[in-house]
Amino acid sequence: MPQPTPENHVIDYRAAEQLLNARDPRGAVKLLDPVIAAHPENTAARLLRARALFLGAQLRAAELEFQIVLEREPDNAFAHFALARTLERANRSAEATRHFRLAAALDPRPDFVAAARFGEAA
């Protein structure tokens, strides 16, 4: 079997995006695992994998992947928002609120601001 090339990884990444859009999170994760193994520093691939894990209800794995993204990109509003959704789904509301508020502070999109519930106690 030939060794994967960077071009193959790009193709797999794009195919994983399509699978995620088609609601096949397991298929997306399967394609992304070798991409991340070859390029562990690639935050875009990690973020896509985290989204796929979330969609596949693998909340702990999604949380860990979102945290890796945020260690590298602490100002990534979407990663904060998605981590908050993951924590919320895992019934960890207080932790989720912190990340919802960070997301809204970094990017005041209406959906981020609404989720942040700034008028309520943390």
Structure description:
- This is Tetratricopeptide repeat protein.
- Pfam families: TPR_19.
- InterPro entries: TPR-like_helical_dom_sf (IPR011990).
- The chain has 122 residues and is mainly alpha-helical.
- The chain folds into 2 domains: 1-68, Serine Threonine Protein Phosphatase 5, Tetratricopeptide repeat, CATH 1.25.40; 74-122, no CATH class.
- The chain has 7 helices and no strands.
- It has helices at 6-21, 25-38, 43-55, 59-72, 77-89, 93-106, 110-116.
- α1 (6-21) packs parallel to α3 (43-55).
- The longest helix has 16 residues, at 6-21.
- It is elongated and about 55 Å long.
- The chain starts with 5 loop residues before the first helix and ends in a 6-residue tail after the last helix.
- The relative contact order is 0.10.
- The mean pLDDT is 93.
